[in-house]
Amino acid sequence: MLSPVILVPAILNGLLTGAVYGLVALGLTLIYGVLHIINFAHGALLTAAMFAAFFAHRLLGLDPYLTAIVLAPLFFALGYCLQRFVIGPAAHGEDRNVLLITLGLAVVIENVLLYAFGADTRTLNLDYAFNVVDLGIAFLAVPRVIGFGVVLVVALVLWLILSLTDTGKAIRAVAKEKLGAELSGIDVGHIYAVTFGLGTACLAIAACLLIPTYYVNPHVGNAFVLIAFTIVVLGGMGSVTGALVGGLFIGVVESLSGLYLGESLGQIGIFVMFILVLLFRPSGLFGERA
Amino acid sequence: MSHWSAEVTRRNLLQTTALGAAAAATGLINAPALVRAQVSPVKLGVLHPVSGALSYSGQQGRLGATIAIEEINAAGGIKALGGAKIEPVLGDAQSTPEGGNAEVEKMNSTGVAAIVGGYASSICLTASQTAARYDLPYVVDVGVADNIVTRGLKNTFRFGPGFGVIAKTALDNLVTINDQAGKPAKTVMIVHEDSLFGSGLAKLLNAQLPERGFQVLETIPHPTPTRDFNNVVLKIKAQNPDLVIPANYYNEYVLLARTMQQQRVRQKGIYSVLGGAASSYKFVKEFPEAAQYIMDCNHWFDPRNPKALALKKKVEDRGQFYTYEGVPRSSRRWKTPPSRAT
Fold first, then answer.
1. Interface test with B, best of A17, A121, A210 (most B CBs within 10 A)
2. Higher pLDDT, B82 or B279
């Protein structure tokens, strides 16, 4: 059972899937790192983005990868408005209010989707979905390879934005010292909303990468967001690098535990990792020690 | 090899359609209605998983049931009840046993005389149990698990064989085919979905395959829905069995076959017992390459029965595929035919 014939493809598949997990986690960790809130609506927003990508193809014939270019700015705007006009004002500066509001948003979004589209599980049949890249030792599905590449590009772009632009510097300043940033003339409300928008835009791209090989139904986001929470904890709360590395790692863990424990038990590996990290390195791999 | 080598003797319980059967059951149980009102319509619960993971099969089942009801009504309704029309009460089991239960409760409160449908074994098992509480006749449309009708529930009827008979027939025919070909197949891997239908069937196959000289290398369960069969296919690749026997529902069957094709894993054959997709024109038409070298033993219509052919045309005229979920029981046969020619 340990022959490289199955081990290598399983690990490679895990890495490819893990990259997209990483992107979902990236959005979550970014929002946590700056706003210091856990965004419970993350999964529901991912589901909404997947529905958007699905119907963009079904109704407009748009390829999911093209949809990403349109959907990312749209979801950025959506995230911006949600934080600026809903979450921010309703929170009254209390973190526990934010938890309830995002949880409430998740319930509303999921049920609106359920009402509009029913509980059906839908899939796209794309011509290239089953094309493979032949590496000799493994056949890799083309959509996953594309997904992997796109995630790396998005992570790089995000890193450049954070380190080079003024907005990026402001985001990092707010993350480090909110009061100090405010005193230096940074509009914290605006930066919060921009960060929330960036996190949501990550979801839109992740959704477009997922839809060629995955299915969509009103609850699909929950599966990813549980994994994303694990990744954020593993990588370190608020760490961008941690989210990516954690995503790749969890992808491989899931793939291997699926291989050896069976499909029905495959996710056990992920949650065992979650418990181990909490026990032995609660600050995560790249997190600052508390 | 004859195209129809494995015809099981049909049960001659009823020579009408399944819905006719349901109507007959309705007529029996609801006899007092005859006295009260000669022609008031008879409400019939039509329960299928039309949303969720099994939605395709559920919608096909619903289509079959509604066409049957239309035909019965057009032919003058239920004669024993003075021409009473059947009024379908459609229900969505949402692809879960709990969903099925909730619909039975709802149907009971709307006053249905009987319920037909269920599709998945796990849904049929619980829905018929709930129906039994209200003494509602329940006619299983597909649900093949044997214990659905062997539990001693007096309200539950099924007009097709269960998977015990089907597995036996399928394996007897597998032996015949294999012997005639010079016994090329010796090892088998079973891939099954992990609810009542798949696990029950896998258990039967695990018991019966060794008796017939086949070695079962591994039995791999997976949940419904599953959207990634890469690991399963890698395992198949590593063990390299002569045959793969899948026992799962439509989406997963298609995905498994397509992933095998994608990963260039080719066994001597895929021989499925009640394979959810292998006997579907939809699968063969949409993914002909993935459907190569697949044989299936499943519910099928009698291609020599003009009624069945007329129904097939009717379904196709509606832009749908004629699949086993909607095939009336009287025009049904059992086949071990290739979904692609051998």
1. A121
2. B82
Same fold, B18-158 and B163-335: yes
Cβ neighbors of A97 (< 8 A, separation 6 or more) are A90, A91
Q: What percent of chain A is predicted at pLDDT more than 70?
A: 98
Tell which CATH classification among 3.40.720.10, 3.40.50.2300, 3.50.30.50, 3.90.1720.10 matches the domain B18-158: 3.40.50.2300
Q: Do B51 and A255 touch (CB under 8 A)?
A: no
Predicted confidence at residue A2, as pLDDT, reads 67
B258 contacts in chain A (CB < 8 Å): 130
**Segment A60-115, tens digit of pLDDT:** 999 999 999 999 999 999 999 999 999 989 888 787 888 899 999 999 999 999 88
What is the C-alpha to C-alpha distance for residues B98 and B85, in angstroms, rounded to an integer?
30
**Nearest CB partner across the interface for A6, out of B51, B238, B262:** B238
**Residue B14's CB: how many other CB atoms inside 10 A?**
16
Q: Smallest CA–CA separation between A108 and chain B, in Å?
A: 20
| Predicted confidence (pLDDT) at residue B65 exceeds the cutoff of 50 | yes
Identify whether A284 is part of a domain. no
Under an 8 A CB cutoff, do A263 and B258 touch? no
Shortest CA gap B270–chain A (Å): 19
Specify the pLDDT at position B277: 84
User: Which two tokens mark A211?
Assistant: 């839809």
With a cut of 70, say whether residue A15 has pLDDT above it: yes
B95 Cα to chain A: minimum distance (Å):
9
Domain B163-335, classified CATH 3.40.50.970, yes or no: no
What residue segments make up the domains of chain B, in order of their start? Answer: 18-158, 163-335
Q: Distance from B316 to chain A by nearest Cα, in Å? A: 22
Contact B251 A217 (CB under 8 A): no
**Could you tell me the residue range of the domain that residue A51 belongs to?**
26-221
A76 lies in a domain? yes
Condensed to tens digits (0 to 9), the pLDDT of residues B124-157 reads 999 999 999 999 999 999 899 999 999 999 999 9
What is the distance between the alpha carbons of residues A227 and A232, in angstroms, rounded to a whole number?
9
Domain count, chain A: 1
Note whether ipTM > 0.85 here: no
The reply to whether A261 falls in a domain is no
Choice between B338 and A257, residue whose per-residue pLDDT is larger? A257
Residue A289 has pLDDT above 80, yes or no: no
Buried b (16+ CB within 10 A) or exposed e, B223-255: bbbbebbbbbbbbbbbeebbbbbbbbbbbbbbb
Is the pLDDT at B15 greater than 70? The verdict is no
In-domain check, residue A260 = no
Shortest alpha-carbon distance between residue B23 and chain A (Å):
30
- If you ran DSSP here, which 8-state letter would residue A249 be given? H
Chain A CA closest to residue B265: A139
Per-residue confidence (pLDDT) for residue B14, from 0 to 100: 37
Chain A residues whose C-beta sits inside 8 Å of any chain B C-beta: 1, 3, 5-6, 9-10, 13, 17, 118-121, 123, 125, 130, 132, 139, 141, 213-215, 217, 255, 258-259, 262-264, 266
- For residue B333, give every residue at least 6 positions away whose Cβ sits within 8 Å of its Cβ, in sequence order, or none: B4, B7, B8, B10, B300, B301, B302
* CB atoms closer than 10 angstroms to residue A242: 25
What's the mean per-residue pLDDT of chain B? Answer: 83
